[in-house]
Amino acid sequence: MAPDTPSDLAATFDRLRRAWREGRPPIEQRREDLSRLRNHLRTRIDEMCNAIDADFGHRARHETLLGEGGVVLSEIDHTLAKLKHWVRPERRKAGWKLWPAKAEVRFVPLGVVGIISPWNYPVNLALAPLVAAIAAGNHVYLKPSEHTPHTAEFLRSLLADVFPEERVAVAIGGPELSATFSALPFDHLFFTGSTAVGRKVMAAAAQNLTPVTLELGGKSPAIIGETADLAKAAARVVTGKFFNAGQTCIAPDYVLIHESRRDAFVGLLRQEVAARYPAKRKLEDYTSIINAAQYERLQRLIADAAARGHAVVPLLDGTQQTRPRLLPPTLVIDPDRDSPVMGEEIFGPILPVVSYTSIEDAIGYVLGHDRPLALYCFSRSEAEIEAILSRVVAGGVCVNDTLYQFGCNDLPFGGVGASGMGHYHGRDGFLTFSKAMPILRKYDPAPSDLVKPPYRGIADWVIRFLSR
Questions:
Q1: Which CATH architecture group holds 6-216+418-438?
Q2: What is the CATH superfamily name and number for domain 221-414?
Q3: pTM
Q4: 262-321, pLDDT tens digit by residue?
Q5: Biggest alpha carbon distance in the chain?
Q6: Residue 312 phi/psi, 5° resolution?
Q7: Catalytically annotated residues
Q8: Nearest to 141 by CA among 162, 177, 120, 115
């Protein structure tokens, strides 16, 4: 299908907004839409896997089922179970000074929401925010990544089967179209991607005073405490880092570990990777790098580390290039802290392992950099865990494991500072795409009947009394 043009974007946006103004989706419609989306996605799960596999060159099927379909289906189930409660007006206290009165907050939809989704989890990170926007009663215009064209067409087809064109639309096109898309006068714009592109999206949205949610990235640390179970920590870091070949915004970007435990930890990482990716399976369970540009960028990071004299440790010996863009898990041991591998988000299967001399040293290193999207700490000491949690501000935290904070429907997900702003998932997503509209119902008698010029007598007494 031909890409959309800027004029297509404007016409589609106008259609979505006009339809929303003519009739906001009631809760029954929202629930029906979400149920239908769940059924269609579940029915077409194999088609989804094939589309993503075609875009990546090779995507481990179970990682697609777990990281894409499983996450979205769980989010829909949680939303359907809770939505009737979320939409109820909240009673608030008007206070005796406004007596007699009643106060409440209603959660009303914003209107037309724009969603720009990335390539690394092209279904999950498109449909999870869409679920929240639909639950809140909005119409949605989705712009998938141009780097996953097969998945973008799958999403367009899927959503066209579920929603009428005046409720949900999908824009297909490259980065130029994304710039035009960001400048549309949405009622809310939701972006997932890099910090650099996030700045551009926010600047474009600012021209319309469009509020934005930015789900960005950064360098998420894993701090291995001195009391941590080293074997469990190694296994769980391997899961978090090499799932989707490290192409995960909340993957552990680097490990901080006490210098006395570093070598043992490296050995355990090697054992764990070898057990998970045996040669006889030909890396069927290992995902390829998305495209040549990303593959070459990661190769440059490895080459730079080697040129600087850092120990570069491939964790799979003798790996053959059996398919394009296959980059095996690789460690970089104690790189210089000003080297590129420690300066930019890696977003691939390269893991720096950095020694520290004390937990304060590790915390200080994290505090000296941008606030991360995710923080992982491994320890059997509550005092050590609290020392970390009480000092570091992160988008989200998982203690003694990795990635799972994203899968908890009842926890907000979002960054802080350079790693993003705003939240979604569960009720927090519903609130992001809603206006909390305060309503005060005033009854007789009203103080304003007395408190009015000339401010003398009873008016003077009432104002002085209320101002005590």
A1: 3-Layer(aba) Sandwich (3.40)
A2: Aldehyde Dehydrogenase; Chain A, domain 2 (3.40.309.10)
A3: 0.94
A4: 999 999 999 999 999 987 777 899 999 999 999 999 999 999 999 999 999 999 876 666
A5: 94
A6: -105, 120
A7: 215, 249
A8: 115
